[in-house]
């Protein structure tokens, strides 16, 4: 695996700040961020995603909260800018 640093929470005052890397081999994003609190996890479960998909969070996954100002570091192709996909 070879990671490329993309960005860290702007003007961070400490060592535990949200950070984003790109896995150059797979194109995956690797994100260090705040673990979502239980209220956020419950709301994710309430809203759900696609019909019939479990709302449980498996042991090998977690829900993180990425601050909005970190979105600037997520790479996009020109066709994606402002388009969004809404999960489809």
Structure description:
The protein is α+β, with helices and mostly antiparallel strands. The protein has one domain (3-73). It is 11% helix and 22% strand. It contains one helix and five strands. The chain has one helix spanning 38-47, and strands at 3-8, 19-23, 29-32, 34-35, 64-65. The strands form two sheets. A three-stranded antiparallel β-sheet has the order 1-2-3, with no helix packed on it. A two-stranded antiparallel sheet has the order 4-5. Residues 83-88 have low confidence and may be disordered.
Features:
two-stranded antiparallel ribbon, alpha+beta, 88 residues, disordered C terminus
Question: What fraction strand?
Answer: 15-25%
Helical percent range? Answer: 10-25%
Give the overall average pLDDT.
86
H/E element order: EEEEHE
Please describe the biggest sheet, giving its number of strands, its sense, and whether it closes into a barrel.
3 strands, antiparallel
Number of helices: 1
Q: Please tell me the total number of domains.
A: 1
Overall geometric form: globular
* Low-confidence regions: 83-88
Distance between the first and last residues' Cα: 29 Å
Number of strand elements: 5
Structural class computed from helices and strand pairing: alpha+beta
Trace the largest sheet across and list its strands. Answer: 1-2-3
> Radius of gyration in whole Å, from Cα?
15 Å
């Amino acid at each position: 695996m070879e990671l490329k640093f993309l960005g860290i929470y702007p003007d961070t005052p400490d060592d535990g700040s949200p950070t984003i890397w790109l896995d150059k081999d797979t194109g995956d994003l690797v994100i260090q961020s705040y673990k979502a609190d239980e209220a956020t996890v419950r709301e994710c479960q309430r809203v759900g995603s696609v019909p019939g998909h479990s709302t449980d969070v498996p042991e090998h996954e977690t829900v993180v909260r990425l601050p909005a100002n970190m979105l600037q570091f997520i790479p996009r192709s020109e066709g994606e800018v402002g388009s969004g996909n809404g999960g489809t």
